[in-house]
Structure formats: C-alpha cells, structure tokens
Amino acid sequence: MDEWMASWHQFDEPSIWAVRAALATGRPLLVRGEPGTGKSQLARAVAAVLKRPLLYEVVNSRTEVTDLLFQFDAVARLAEAQIQGASKVHNPDEVRKMLAPERFVRPGRMWWAMNWEEAEAQAVLSGTAVPSGRESALTNGCVLLVDEIDKADSELPNALLECFANQSFQVPYLTKAIRPHQTQPRPLVVVTTNEERELPAPFLRRCLVLQLLLETNDAKLKAFLVRRGDVHFQEEFKNIDGYQTVLETAADLLILDRNKLGSNVVHRPGQAEYLDLCHAVFEIARQKTCGSAEQVLEDVAEFALRKNVE
Q1: Mean pLDDT to the nearest integer, 36-53
Q2: Three-state DSSP class for 68?
Q3: pLDDT tens digit string along 127-179?
Q4: What are the C-alpha distances in Å from 215 to residues 212, 270, 271, 297?
Q5: Do the Cβ atoms of 233 and 227 come closer than 8 Å?
Q6: DSSP codes of every residue in 2-54
Q7: Residue 212's closest CA among 271, 256, 163, 172?
Q8: What whole-number distance in Å separates Cα of residue 301 and Cα of residue 254?
C-alpha cells in the first residue's frame, strides 16, 4: 500500500467491534497503546478490508491543524511573482490571474477524506498530486489515519475536534466552506497515541477509544506473541528447522527483558521487537551459513530487545 511494506494483520474481537462502532457513529477512533502494538497497522488493515483508500498524516511537534485541512504554498506564490516580474509581458489581468491565492491552496488529508471531488478539483488548480483510489473513495469512503497525535501541541486535538463536530471547515482563500460530499461515505478517522502526552479531555470525550494492551500474564503474553509470529511468518519460513522453537524462545526472551525493566520504563520491548527478532533469525537461518535457527537467535536477540541503557 503506497510506500508501506507488505505485512500481515490479525484482527481481534475488540478491534473489530471498535471499528464497527466508529463506522456507525462517525466518531474518531482513538487507538491507545505502547509503541509496536499495531495501532497504525490497524488503520491499514481496515482500509484494505473495507476497500477504502488510506490517507495518513504523521504528526510531529510542528504539525498544525491546517496541515490536515489545507496548505497555502506562499513560497510557490512568491516564486511565481518573481517569474511574472522578470517576464517581458506585463498584462495586469494575466498577472493577477496567475497570482490568485486560490491557485496556491493545496488540499490536505481531511479535505480528501471528506470531499474527494472538490479536493481533486482544487489539486488540479494548484498543481498538486492526486492520490490514487478515487473510485473506491467515492464508493466506499476513506480511512484517515492521524498518527502519533500525542507529539503535537494540545491545540491540534482541540482544533480537529471542532472540524469533526461541524463536519466542515473554512479555507480563508476560498469563498466557500469545505463540507462532506453528498454521496461519498463519511471517513473512518483513526487517531493513534503512544501516551507521551495526555490528550485534552474534550477530545477524549468525543472519541471512541480502543486500548491495544499487551497481556500482563506471562503465559498469556507468550501465547499471544507466538500466535502473532506464526501469522506473520508461517507462509515464508514454516519449513525452517527450529521454526516453532524460535517463536517460543524469542517470546520467553522478550518477556524476561520486559520483566527486568519493569513497568516504569517508557519503551519496553514489545510486539514489534518480537517480530523483528523472529524475522531476522529466520532470514539469517534460511541462508544456512550461520548455524541453526536456535544458534542465530542466541547471537542476535540482544540487538532487537535491549534498547535501553543498562
């Protein structure tokens, strides 16, 4: 899917019902959990199952709400003004047309998710690339992923909340508000957080919340990890000698490290580290130049699991 690598996803019952509830109510689905539990991948998997385009914005400390709604490319407008100034042809009407503000408004992810046709028309006007998936968007709607919202200033969730509530937003350079398409289904908005910052209470109240938590019981966590590992690797690596042993031993090592670090450490090794470790072991063992899969696991485990200063 776009630049994302191919992957496997296994839905569980809580995730399925949370998605169904978000689709039914039109509320954003906030997915909470420690890094590596599959929060972003859930949005990808839902988009694939529902045959919807996935639109996503990875949030950082400088992200503003307009980055999701629209961007005004002032640099491109300045460059166009310089070109017009250097041109020997000075037709005032033509210059005003070329420098009209609406020609430099680029639709953001939320615009595409709400009203694909108007976003596409604006993209053509401003020379912006058009995402793939037009027919699916108009027929089935979109999945909008707002990833790692806890990295943003608290103003971003509050501003998004207003957009969600009003089902519209204003673009200062245009004469009309952007509203949902009459026939395009409402987008499924998935918001993820790694819990690095507390989110505003008004935002939380208007979201449905799915918590992707790893089991605290060692035996249940081991069974969970082994099942997930088998889903990811059985098709490609099932015939490697020691396949099942690696899945189980890698889970034991991860649980041991998690318990040593304790719950106060922000980033303990989790599902992502477990899958990375198994993938590395199976890939190296398949080459048959470095010993058995069990031996490879002993040699590479620390690089995948031990990421904190001792």
Answers
A1: 93
A2: helix
A3: 888 999 999 999 999 999 999 998 988 788 888 887 877 788 888 888 888 88
A4: 10, 11, 11, 23
A5: no
A6: TTSPP------HHHHHHHHHHHHH---EEEE-STTSSHHHHHHHHHHHHT--E
A7: 271
A8: 9
Parse the chain into domains and list their residue ranges: 13-72+98-211, 218-305
The β-bridge partners of 106 are 71
Contact status, residue 284 vs residue 300, Cβ threshold 8 Å: yes
Q: Dmax over Cα atoms in the chain, in whole Å? A: 77
Q: Strand 169-170 to strand 177-178: parallel, antiparallel, or no bridges (unpaired)?
A: antiparallel
What's this model's pTM, rounded to 2 decimal places?
A: 0.85
What crossing angle do the helices spanning 39-50 and 13-25 adopt, rounded to 10°?
70
What SS3 state is found at 178?
Answer: strand
Question: Which class is domain 13-72+98-211?
Answer: alpha beta
Helix (H) or strand (E) holding 134: helix 134-140
In whole angstroms, what is the distance from residue 2 CA to residue 102 CA? Answer: 28
pLDDT tens readout for residues 85-105: 666 666 776 666 777 778 888
Token reading at 23: 């689709």
Alpha-carbon distance of 243 to 36, in angstroms, equals 22
**CB of 266 closer than 8 Å to CB of 307:** no
Per-residue buried b or exposed e for 62-78, using 16+ beta carbons within 10 Å of the residue's own CB: ebebebbbbbbbeeebe
For tokens 């990295």, the residue is 151
Vertex 11 angle, CA 208 and 116, to 5°: 60
Alpha-carbon gap, residue 173 to 21, rounded angstroms: 36
**Of 73, 40, 45, nearest to 56 (Cα)?**
40
Judged by average pLDDT, the poorest of 58-67, 117-126, 154-163, 296-305 is: 154-163
Phi and psi angles of residue 223, each rounded to the nearest 5 degrees, phi first: -60, -40
